[in-house]
Amino acid sequence: MPLNDDQSSDSDSSRLSESTASSSDSEYSRQSFNSDSSSKPSSPASASPPKMVTFDELMAAARNLTNLTLAHEIAVNANFCIKHEDLPQNSFAGTVKQIVHKAFWDCLESELNEDPPEYEHAIKLFAEIKEILLSFLTPGANRIQNQICEVLDTDLIRQQAEHNAVDIHGLANYIITTMGKLCAPIRDNDIKQLKATDNIVELLRQIFHVLDLMKMDMANYTIQNLRPYLQRNLVDYERTKFQEILEETPSALDLTTEWIKESIEDELSSIYDESSSPGADSSSKPSLSPTLVLNNGYLKLLQWDYHKTIPETLITDEARLQELREKLNQLKIIACVCLITNNTVGAAIVNVPDLADQLKRISFPLLEGMNKKTFDLKEALNAIGVQICSKVNRSLSERDLPTLNTEMQNNLMGQIASIVEENNPVSSLIDKRIQLFMKSLLALPSFQKCMPTLPGGLSVIQTEMEFVGSQYASIVNFNKQVYGPFYANILRKLLFSEAPMGKVETEAPTN
Question: What are the tens digits of pLDDT across the range 363-378?
Answer without folding.
Answer: 989 998 888 888 999 9
